[in-house]
Amino acid sequence: MKLFLALDAQSLNLDKSTFAKLRVSLKKKTDEFKFVDMDKLCIPLVHLPEIDIDLFKEKINSIAQNTSPFDLKLSRLSAYPDLIQARMIWIGVQNTRELRELQNKLAALFYLESEQEYKPTLPLVRMRNHHNVTDALSPYKSTKFPVLNAQKIILYEMTSGGAYPAIKPVLEFGLTVELP
Question: What's the half-sphere exposure (Cβ side, CA atoms, 13 Å) at 98?
Fold first, then answer.
């Protein structure tokens, strides 16, 4: 079991017809994929070390309460680690100052240092094995997505059982600046 903190993206009103076409394109290549449940859409912020989360709840809540909700633009579909060897298809997320500040505060809370620069994404499809998705994603290069209003951080628990990890929400922290 692993824990991670993420921005909630459940409120996105994504055009289901767009993803129906993507599903058909992917089915031409493989049956070994799974869309993330729409009620579990999120933008991962930090993956947590093995910790007792109860020791950090108050501090996470404090960070959330001192952060105003903010908007994030979403753009283009791409894949991890790349289009040729995809294991996950994601929607790109605008790396705003507000998002970087929130991610940095949470990473600092858990003393997390990364050699890689934080690259925000919204995971959409998980693949069982590596697949070339270049052709499947090419029609979606200019797809417009709605703006996401980030309003809460969710602590998720991820368990690996079978081909696709399962995630479930554990705690929520609303983004609200407390007025004096």
Answer: 16
d(CA 93, CA 14): 14
Q: Is 162 left (phi over 0), alpha (psi -120 to 50) or beta?
A: left
| HEC readout, the chain | CEEEEEEECCCCCCCHHHHHHHHHHHHCCCCCEEECCHHHCEEEEEECCCCCHHHCHHHHHHHHHCCCCEEECEEEEEEECCCCCEEEEEEEECCCHHHHHHHHHHHHHCCCCCCCCCCCEEEEEEEEEEECCHHHHHHHCCCECCCEEECEEEEEEEEECCCCEEEEEEEEEECCCCCC
Residue 113: what residue type? Answer: E
The pLDDT tens digits for 46-84 are: 999 888 889 999 999 999 999 999 999 998 899 999 999
Whether the model clears a pTM of 0.85, i.e. scores above it, the answer is yes
Q: Which residues contact 54 (CB under 8 A, 6 or more apart)?
A: none
